[in-house]
Amino acid sequence: MESLLNNLLSGDTRSLARVISLVENRAPNREEILSRLFPHAGRARVIGVTGSPGVGKSSLVDRLAAHYRGKGFKPGIIAVDPTSAFTGGAILGDRIRMNALSSDPGIFIRSMATRGHLGGVASATADVVLVLDAAARDPVIIETVGVGQDEIDIARLADLSIVVLVPGMGDDVQALKAGIMEIGDIFVINKCDRPGVEKMERTLSTLLSLVEQPGIPSPPVVKTIATDGAGIDELAGHIDAWYELRQGNAAMLEKRRESARQRLLALIREHALEAVLRSAFPDDELEAAAERIAKRETDPYSLVREKMKRFETPTP
Ligand SMILES: Nc1nc2c(ncn2[C@@H]2O[C@H](COP(=O)(O)OP(=O)(O)OP(=O)(O)O)[C@@H](O)[C@H]2O)c(=O)[nH]1
Ligand SMILES: [Mg+2]
């Protein structure tokens, strides 16, 4: 393990891929690995890109990564895929679309399925961000489809969230959860080669004025055409300015503190659940109990009350 981690730290891509797999597959030594890497992380800019299916997130991420690559950085990309565990097709789709990049070892791409992670996908994504960060990947860009709590949790992992919209989705935008509007630090109207750009701009500024907070300037809105690269330099300019403005300031520190708090709680939850299950339901007792409840021989409430008694500390 020592040499694997050293290779990762000195920039070896294959070791990076192996460590991510170990972490994602919940290898028994994964927490040891993560604590070893932790001191080497904390430098990467972590950028979230969120938006409805097909708005052009992967195309934008592809362009952004190429932009930063051109500046001498080595970006890491995590594509969080909500459907891949069911069909396997969407992962392949992302791989194909991002193909132009994948031949360059300076850009590392990883797809993650949202299902099948015991601790939740946000938790698994946080671990992968840490690994990429320790491997000196910067920026780390996370692509997610903007639906559901998982995505909002993932967006919270990022320092900065980019929300992607397209012309003609007016009514869909109205239906967007307020949560998504609120996490947006920069808004992108992509596919500006299509009609309806001005209407979309107006709808967006109306929505932004609803969530506006006094004293805080509205987030920038950038118009892009990801397929030909128009607006990408401007988008990167806003990202860079965002970081410059916040470098080491109180709001940034508060965001990192909040993110650390969430991470800590998530880890405690995971460990506590595992420990309680192991202690209260050893072997296949969980299955046996489920069967008894299904057959109406007992009820879950008294069973859990009974099982939890062992964790109660006696009141002095
Ligand atoms: N006309 C036009 N098409 C675009 C633009 N950006 C992306 N597309 C196309 O839109 C389709 C979807 O693009 P993706 O980048 O895969 O979108 P996505 O949001 O990552 O999609 P999912 O990951 O499936 O949610 C592709 O066919 C792109 O070529 C654009 O600016 N203009
Ligand atoms: Mg995509």
Topology:
Layout: H1 2-9, H2 13-24, H3 30-37, E1 46-51, H4 57-70, E2 76-81, H5 84-87, H6 89-97, H7 99-102, E3 108-113, H8 121-134, E4 140-145, H9 148-157, E5 160-165, H10 170-175, H11 178-183, E6 186-189, H12 197-211, E7 221-223, H13 232-246, H14 250-280, H15 285-294, H16 300-308
Parallel strand pairs: 1-4, 1-5, 2-3, 2-4, 5-6, 6-7
Helix pairs in contact: 1-2, 2-8, 4-13, 8-9
This protein binds guanosine-5'-triphosphate (GTP) and magnesium ion.
Low-confidence stretches: 84-100
> Helix/strand/pairing class, anyone?
alpha/beta
Heteromolecules bound: guanosine-5'-triphosphate, magnesium ion
Oligomer: single chain
Question: Describe it for me?
Answer:
The protein has 16 helices and seven strands. It has 316 residues and is α/β, with parallel strands linked by helices. Strand 6, helix 12 and strand 7 (221-223) form a beta-alpha-beta unit. Helix 2 packs antiparallel against helix 8 (121-134) and helix 4 (57-70) crosses helix 13 (232-246). It starts with a helix and ends in an 8-residue tail after the last helix. Residues 84-100 have low confidence and may be disordered. Bound molecules: guanosine-5'-triphosphate and magnesium ion. Guanosine-5'-triphosphate binds next to helix 4. Guanosine-5'-triphosphate (GTP) is lined by residues 51, 53-59, 97, 145, 190-191, 193-194, 225-227.
